[in-house]
Amino acid sequence: MRETVFTKIVKGEIPCFKLGENENAFAFLDINPVTEGHSLVVPKYPYRNIFDTPENILGDVIVLAKEVAILLKDKLGADGINIVSSNGREANQEIEHLHFHVVPRYKKESLNIWQELRKYQVTETIEDVYKKIKS
Amino acid sequence: MRETVFTKIVKGEIPCFKLGENENAFAFLDINPVTEGHSLVVPKYPYRNIFDTPENILGDVIVLAKEVAILLKDKLGADGINIVSSNGREANQEIEHLHFHVVPRYKKESLNIWQELRKYQVTETIEDVYKKIKS
């Protein structure tokens, strides 16, 4: 099996602040958090991204992400939760092992997660994009 | 049943650029895209967010998101894909019906989806946060 920092965390070879697990997924605190309680949920097996992860494994990952979201809301008083997954280097994926960020959000911050991507200049019409997709 | 803009889209009462569906989920192009091909995947029933969505429905939503991600990669030449879900107004959720954004990313842009949230000032140590969660 290919090894990643996350497979080592799952196997206990790298310590982590574990939050939970189920048959195919494992959750722990991100050590470089964007907000307090920022967590990661990963499949136990090192699928690279959403493109190569089987459906049942994806299901286990998102179900554990929901559990972590509820835990962070209840225990840290998060006012909202972002779920974010980056697939491919151009989408800002850094570790080649699928991971879903579970990011608690707090009233005090007034940040907008879309601020950065809104800088992108959309040049094609939605009709033209749809034609390409359906071609 | 509570009505939302998304239940109206699912029922065909509001037109959309439909990309696909399965038993519990429905996918279409976002009409206010951040990048070309920006899509939304929603449960057919109007669950408000990840907190109140049953596990099997979440599974259908993420599986359809994967299919849409592959479609956008293949048809639009996306170099990467972000999956983003906002849960709660403080997480920048605007429509109270769970939705997963599927956002194609392109080499030309050089944007970082984490740029905005990195402005948040983390003040608590990860150890203190973990103690709170485990309390």
Structural write-up:
- 2 copies of one chain form a homodimer.
- With 135 residues, the first copy, chain A, is an alpha+beta fold.
- The first copy, chain A, has one domain (5-110): HIT-like (HIT family, subunit A).
- In chain A, 27% of the residues lie in helices and 21% in strands.
- Chain A is built from 3 helices and 5 strands, in the order αβββαββα.
- Chain A has helices spanning 5-10, 55-76, 126-134; strands spanning 18-21, 25-29, 39-43, 80-87, 100-105.
- In chain A, strands 1-2-3-5-4 form a 5-stranded antiparallel β-sheet, covered by helices on one side.
- In chain A, a hairpin with a 3-residue loop joins strand 1 and strand 2 (25-29).
- Chain A is globular, with a radius of gyration of 17 Å.
- The mean pLDDT of chain A is 96.
- Chains A and B meet through helix 2, strand 4, strand 5 and helix 3 of A and helix 2, strand 4, strand 5 and helix 3 of B.
What is the fold's blueprint, element by element?
Two copies of one chain form a homodimer.
Chain A: H1 5-10, E1 18-21, E2 25-29, E3 39-43, H2 55-76, E4 80-87, E5 100-105, H3 126-134
